[in-house]
Amino acid sequence: MYALGFDSGQPTDRRWRHCRYWSAADLPASVREWLLDEGSLTARLVAASSGEFAVRVIDQSWQRPLPDERRALGLREAGHALVREVALICHGAPWVFARSVLPAATLTGELRHLRRFGSRSLGALLFAEPRLRREAFELARIGPADPLIPASLRGAAPAWGRRSVLRLQGKPLLIQEIFLPACRIGENTGAV
Length: 192
Prior knowledge:
Blueprint: E1 2-3, E2 17-18, H1 29-35, H2 41-48, E3 53-63, H3 67-73, E4 81-90, E5 93-103, H4 122-126, E6 132-134, E7 138-142, E8 159-168, E9 171-179, E10 184-185
Antiparallel strand pairs: 1-10, 2-7, 3-4, 4-5, 5-9, 6-8, 7-8, 8-9
């Protein structure tokens, strides 16, 4: 087994790049399988941890999204969004840090309920919605000291991150997931 990481000699700059940018040399098949899986990451983590899964909410508040998040969502600079940060816990350890950005305009009408989902998984709620559409993944190498990751979750090694804009009833939201050092992939089984 090995961590969902990469050679630490490679640069880590958190420039999000379309998934087609990354070659097979950059992404071994087992890593690519996890990063580009279009299904619910929550469901996959629940299965990989034999049900020993929990969501720990780190923060949920109205904020101005980061510049690259605003660009991804097509938001004005002054726009605000509900930003939710959680740790996805498997076998008692944080395996994934997830940061979701839900623009104020997205959280209207039938989608108002997304303002309050407590410690439930956002992924579980979203993937139950048949009208959900996911845009192409962007991937990035995330350095161990990157301020995107809360200090309490940072490891000593770089990690892979993925993000995508999801459209629910045509309204955008951004999901970013950083695979932390505790997240490990079996070389032959694809299991974590």
